[in-house]
Amino acid sequence: MRRLALFLGVCLGAVLFSGCVTKEVQITLMPEEEGKVGTISVTDRKGDTHTIDKAYEALDISQKGEITFKRETEESVKVKYAEVLHALPQKPQSYLFFFGFDSAILETKQLEELKIVARLIRENKVVEVISIGHSDSAGDKEYNKTLSLQRAKNVADKLAVYGVPKSLMQLKYYGDANPLETTTSNKPNAKNRRVEIILK
Amino acid sequence: MKKYFASVVWFTVTPLLLLASPSVALVKSVHGDVSVTHADHTTVSLKQGDRIFEKDFIKTAPNSTIGIVFEDNTLISIGSNAEFLVDEYLFEPENKNVKFKSNLFKGIMACKTGLIPKINPNAMEIKAKTATIGIRGTYFVAEAKE
Which among B80, B129, B140 has CB closest to A29? Predict the structure, then answer.
């Protein structure tokens, strides 16, 4: 009799315990700043695909793979997911600096702008700064690579002068391989003679 | 003999691959206690500016969060008491070779997608418990409840 009670107890415990660990997943779509919303799809065990594509729509997926539609609101999401929404990093920022023909020299006005970028780097706890040099397609390809590196280097050196730790900085250079404006080869183009600084 | 050869290749090639593997993301912010276990089973605590690699297993303590910026500009935050694995990450935009598969074992994550789903709408996937979630962008929260 005692054994039976123990057995029943164990069974009950098992049922209660499994009830406690019912695991499920919820996925909720959020609107972007510009009001755009993406698409998320989940395939259940029967092979049916469930898709959500409007802000605050959500899918609940049970441990058994059953999917139910759910609607959250701006307020409910803000409360439930405050921690992760707050911890989400900002998008990397990028800034462009343009150069004269066959030149890697920064003008006085650009130096002032670089001082502002250096301040942004310090204030926003930036963890990586990438200085990427580009050239237009006029002239020799190898020469243009070296020129684009020199541009990237000059920008990084100035940032270092303005207090950005060198350990944060990375140099990249592409010559004429990544133009902003596609041109025929061997063509001077002011928009392609540039350095892009990316702040992460 | 064949087996012997295979193990020699394995031991010589693996460390080289590990050395060559580039980082896939940067740690932008850490609050509280967050640790990472790398593919070689070493575990260290994470701080701002650290790098994340493929196969990194990230674990957050109570009241702890982490914010991560991936190479393709995917932004991810992970909340308290969570476990997250960067299972596969490939970003070679020049030949449209992209892939991002991750696994949320428990906890909550928020994500704003970057270039990967724009380049290939089928390249991004998150596994959470029994669910495999296809991500075509752009901003979402996933929660693996216990």
Answer: B140
